[in-house]
Design goal:
Layout (H helix, E strand, L loop, with lengths): L4 H8 L17 H14 L2 H14 L4 E4 L7 E7 L3 E4 L7 E12 L4 E12 L2 E8 L5 H18 L2 E2 L2 H4 L17 H5 L10
Parallel strand pairs: 5-7
Antiparallel strand pairs: 1-2, 2-4, 3-4, 4-5, 5-6
Helix pairs in contact: 3-4
C-alpha cells in the first residue's frame, strides 16, 4: 500500500485546524471533537498496545520498555531505552551522562508508523541537551529500532511513513506547531518528538 502526502493531508484536516479561532474558548472545535472521539474509540482497544510492550520485552530483554502515549498527540508511542551511562568524569566537575531511547509511534489517524531516536545528556542530575534522530539513527539505536518497526508492522498492520512524506509542510496548526513549520509528522504523530519520559 502506498499512502500519498495529499491523502494524509486530507485526513489531517479532519482533526487539525488552520487557525486558532477556538483558542481561549470553552467551546471545542469540530476538529477537536472528532479527535477526542477517535481517541476514545482507540483507547477501547488499549490491550493490543500492551501486547506490543510484552513482545518488545521478550525480544529486547537487555533494554527497558516504556510508554509515552499522550492523548494530545495523534499516536500511541512506545519507548525502548537504555539505562543512563557515564560519558565523562572530569576531576572537580560533575559527571556527564547520557541516555537514549528508540520511540515507536503508531498514528491513530492513518495506518502508518514511524520510529525515531532521542538522546538526553546530563551534567550531574541536570538535563543539559537533547537531540532527536530520524534517519540514520546512531549505531546503538539501529537494532532496537528494527525490532520495534518489525513488531509494529506485525501487530498492527501499519506501514512505515517515508521520511520525505513525513517532512511535508502542511497549512495546519498542531499543538505548538504552526505554519510554515508544521509537517505531516506533527499532525500524524506528535508536535514534540523530543518529549519522552526518560
Amino acid at each position: 500500500m502506498s499512502i500519498s502526502a495529499e491523502y494524509l493531508l486530507s485526513v489531517a484536516r479532519n482533526y487539525w485546524r488552520s487557525d486558532r479561532e477556538f483558542d481561549g474558548k470553552l467551546e471545542r472545535s469540530p476538529e477537536l471533537e472528532r479527535f477526542q472521539g477517535l481517541w476514545e474509540e482507540k483507547l477501547e482497544k488499549i490491550d493490543e498496545w500492551w501486547v506490543l510492550h510484552d513482545e518488545l520485552r521478550a525480544a529486547l530483554p537487555h533494554l527497558k520498555i516504556g510508554d509515552a502515549t499522550a492523548t494530545v498527540d495523534a499516536c500511541f508511542r512506545c519507548l525502548v531505552y537504555a539505562e543512563q551511562q557515564l560519558v565523562s568524569e572530569d576531576p572537580g566537575n560533575e559527571p556527564r551522562s547520557r541516555c537514549w531511547a528508540v520511540v515507536g509511534c503508531v498514528s491513530i489517524l492513518a495506518p502508518v508508523y514511524t520510529v525515531y531516536g532521542v538522546q538526553y545528556d546530563y551534567k550531574g542530575r541536570e538535563w543539559i541537551a537533547r537531540r532527536v534522530f530520524f534517519e540514520p539513527l546512531p549505531p546503538e539505536m539501529q537494532a532496537p529500532a528494527e525490532t520495534v518497526a518489525r513488531k509494529l508492522e506485525e501487530l498492527f498492520g501499519v506501514e512505515a511513513l517515508p521520511r520525505e512524506i513525513a517532512e511535508t509542510r502542511i497549512p495546519l496548526t498542531v499543538e505548538r506547531q504552526e505554519p510554515p513549520h508544521t509537517t505531516l509528522f506533527h499532525a500524524l504523530f506528535t508536535s514534540r518528538p523530543e518529549s519522552v519520559p526518560l
